[in-house]
From TrEMBL:
Protein's name according to its UniProt entry: Undecaprenyl-diphosphatase
Signal sequence range: 1-25
Source species: Actinokineospora auranticolor
Transmembrane annotation, as ranges: 49-72, 84-101, 121-140, 147-168, 174-195
Domain Phosphatidic acid phosphatase type 2/haloperoxidase: 85-189
Sorted UniProt keywords: Membrane, Signal, Transmembrane, Transmembrane helix
Pfam family, one: PAP2
């Protein structure tokens, strides 16, 4: 538990330092990627990225939270399982809250677009659901953790690419979003005693 909390603090510190470092001006790598991937946001690539953003975005954590709450209510006869699910709802909420720090950095978007840029709220949303899913899977289906990690990683990458292609986020915005979610997730999961996972206790229905 101490290891996870320490790593979470380190990643959160890196997230905050990155946000501060890029808040005033976009570094060269941001400009290069934006000039390449975001150059045709108003064309077909942008249309595809827009469709992807509708799915891989804020709607995901909202749906995931509702599913977890409904699942928890169905597990009222199993306090251990119900408690696990409700703690995962809290974990999801804290991870999603990472995007609330945008006003702190006040970073401008690559193109004219509402709201601030760092971190990407869409990537925060997808990463939050992915992180929570991995933690929950470690408790309930440990043999599938690698598959869930892979699927979550792919979803985060796709969400990140969509936002960069739409030219509404810099590369460091989407990277920072992932960094922040993992940091907040590790710290919160350790505090909620979700890490390290102890699947045997929950599996018995206690």
């Amino acid at each position: 538990m101490k290891f996870h909390a320490t790593l979470g603090v380190i990643l959160l510190a890196a997230f905050l330092m990155l946000g501060r470092a890029v808040s005033d001006a976009a570094p060269g790598i941001d400009q290069a990627v934006a000039g390449t991937l975001g150059a045709d946001w108003h064309g077909a690539p942008g249309d595809i990225a827009y469709a992807g953003s509708l799915v891989l975005g804020p709607v995901l954590p909202a749906v995931a939270a509702l599913v977890l709450i409904a699942w928890a209510l169905l597990q009222r006869s199993r306090p251990g399982r119900m408690g696990l699910l409700l703690r995962c709802v809290l974990l999801l909420a804290v991870c999603r809250a990472v995007s609330l720090v945008k006003p702190f950095f006040e970073r401008a978007r690559p193109r004219d677009y509402p709201d601030f840029s760092f971190p990407s709220g869409h990537v925060v949303s997808v990463a939050s659901v992915g992180f929570t899913a991995v933690v929950l899977c470690a408790w309930l289906a440990r043999e599938r953790v690698k598959l869930v990690v892979f699927c979550a990683s792919v979803a985060v990458v796709l969400a990140a690419v969509c936002r960069v292609v739409l030219d509404v986020h810099w590369l460091t915005d989407v990277f920072g979003a992932t960094l922040g979610v993992v940091g907040a997730g590790l710290l919160t999961a350790a505090a909620l005693r979700l890490l390290p996972a102890r699947p045997s206790g929950v599996g018995s229905g206690t």
